[in-house]
Amino acid sequence: MREPARRWPAALREGLRPVGPRRSLFLRFTLVCMPPRPVTPSSRPVGTVTRGTTNPNRLRRMDRWIAAVHGPALRRSTVAPVAVDLGYGAAPWTAVELLQRLRAAEPRTRVVGVEIEPARVEAARPYARDGLSFVHGGFEVPLPGPVNPLVIRAANVLRQYDEDQVAEVWQRLCARLAPGGLLVEGTCDEIGRRHVWVALGPEGPRSVTFATRLGSLDRPSDLAERLPKALIHRNVPGEPVHAFLRDFDRAWAAAAPYASLGARQRWIRAVRLLAADWPLTDVRTDGRRRWRQGEVTVKWSALAPGSV
């Protein structure tokens, strides 16, 4: 069944015209993880074609979190910082939106959209502008010149991979980061209401963030279906992520009296209760501001598979 037609976001309509008819590609794939090797112009991209489905504004929660949390690192960069939208899909609007949101944090930011399907790269080129470009590539993240990105965003890329491939992909992508860089890898629903992502640095995974439009939430464990590949099969008794979501649901139930003040106040109260037993990374910083956005971030070490 065909999806209903969607309006193109204003950022893409202003001064830009899509070339050719819009098309949807539904191709199943298997990613092949290969040992790291030097990136050269003749290197074959690592991986195979994804389904490429996407929607305008789908990654807004992840983008805003990156801008808020990693904005200081972008501003400290002595050169124009580079961010990569890895696997942007059949339409380029997530890369356009990433540029817009990161430039609000650091106007010098440049974004490179990387796609493994050559036809998608060619279709995206008319949308290139100052600070935004598109290249053909995969997990090797081929950037022109000796450039290492300060941000790599890989959203909805690893969900269809085998769990045992994730660590190798993470390692490959983290090796491409500039010092102090950030890899954000996760999964969201089709319109970006519910999203869970892992933040990683060159040293490895740091944290897991749960983000949602609070009006769509019955209970926090509804986010389980959007866990990234490293965790989604671990949501079973005896695993840390299962215990975390169980405790979050209990805190949500205990915070029910706050529902009369709105879902946001109930969420904030539930997160405060959760912080008594779980190492939330934003408790001692400006956590309340992120909590008000329907977010909570917990240390990766607390949710890592088998860490109980």
Describe the structure.
Helices cover 30% and strands 16% of the residues. With 308 residues, it is α/β, with parallel strands linked by helices. The chain has a single domain (59-301), classed as Rossmann fold, CATH 3.40.50. The chain has an 8-stranded mixed beta sheet with strand order 3-2-1-4-5-6-7-8, with helices on both faces. Helix 2 packs across helix 3 and helix 7 packs across helix 8 (263-274).
Q: Which characteristics define this entry?
A:
308 residues; alpha/beta; Rossmann fold; eight-stranded mixed sheet; globular; Class I SAM-dependent methyltransferase; SAM-dependent_MTases_sf
3D shape: globular
CATH C-level = Alpha Beta
CATH topology: Rossmann fold
Question: Spans of 5+ residues with little confidence (pLDDT < 50)?
Answer: 1-42
Q: What is the radius of gyration computed over CA atoms, rounded to a whole number of angstroms?
A: 19 Å
Whole-number count of domains: 1
- The ordered string of helix (H) and strand (E) elements is HHEHEHEEHEEEHHHHEH
* Helical content class: 25-40%
Strand order, biggest sheet?
A: 3-2-1-4-5-6-7-8
Overall structural class, as computed from helix and strand content, comes to: alpha/beta
Protein name: Class I SAM-dependent methyltransferase
Organism: Streptomyces wuyuanensis
Topology:
Layout lengths: L9 H4 L46 H17 L5 E5 L6 H13 L4 E6 L2 H7 L7 E5 L14 E5 L10 H10 L6 E7 L5 E8 L2 E9 L16 H4 L7 H15 L8 H12 L12 H6 L2 E5 H4 L5
Parallel strand pairs: 1-2, 1-4, 2-3, 4-5
Antiparallel strand pairs: 5-6, 6-7, 7-8
